[in-house]
Write a structure and sequence with these properties.
The protein has about 170 residues and is mainly alpha-helical. Helices cover about 55% and strands about 5% of the residues. The longest helix is centred in the middle third of the chain and has 24 residues.
């Protein structure tokens, strides 16, 4: 059941991470803006949360009849966020700088492996539980997996903006 899309998306992020020095990962384009390292940290943290939700969904029938919001249904139908800037949760301002580049790489590799394992479990699970997304109501295991891919792809534009900043800044590889 593992969507090739997710593996492809993960490979984009993993491959891109190799090009940055730790100094570049911690450079912020502007006050109040995330660095590339904070963006990777956000993606790792959020996706690990999604993985935990998937594990719950495949182990229970709780909330099986609950639904996602109309906005979430539109996300799944279109398989992407709308092409607009979306204001994140206030807690996003508290994303720390990464402790090392290796932690980011390991996080992505662990996520990719975890999703691979879970995708098999999703397809064989007899349970159809759902868990509540903080703003979009209830998702099934398959929807959490799709949402993980949508979320990574959604942040590609932000990644490009930070890449553009890094190309024009005085922060060069050392």
């Amino acid at each position: 059941m593992l969507p090739n899309n997710f593996n492809n998306t993960m490979d984009v992020w993993i491959d891109a991470l190799e090009q940055y020095t730790f100094r570049q990962l911690c450079a912020s384009p502007a006050t109040g803006s995330w660095s590339m390292g904070q963006l990777y940290t956000h993606l790792n943290d959020d996706t690990n949360y999604y993985i935990e939700q998937i594990k719950i969904c495949i182990a229970t029938n709780d909330n099986a009849n609950e639904e996602a919001t109309p906005f979430a249904k539109m996300l799944f139908l279109n398989n992407r966020f709308p092409d607009t800037m979306i204001e994140g949760a206030p807690s996003n301002a508290l994303i720390p700088q990464p402790a090392s580049k290796e932690i980011l790489v390991d996080g992505l590799l662990n996520i990719k492996a975890g999703i691979s394992t879970l995708s098999t479990l999703i397809s064989t699970s007899k349970f159809k539980g759902k868990t509540k997304h903080p703003g979009l109501n209830y998702f099934s295991a398959r929807e959490w997996l799709q949402f993980a891919d949508i979320h990574f792809r959604h942040h590609l534009r932000q990644k490009q903006q930070i890449d553009d900043f890094l190309k024009t800044s005085i922060i060069h590889p050392q």
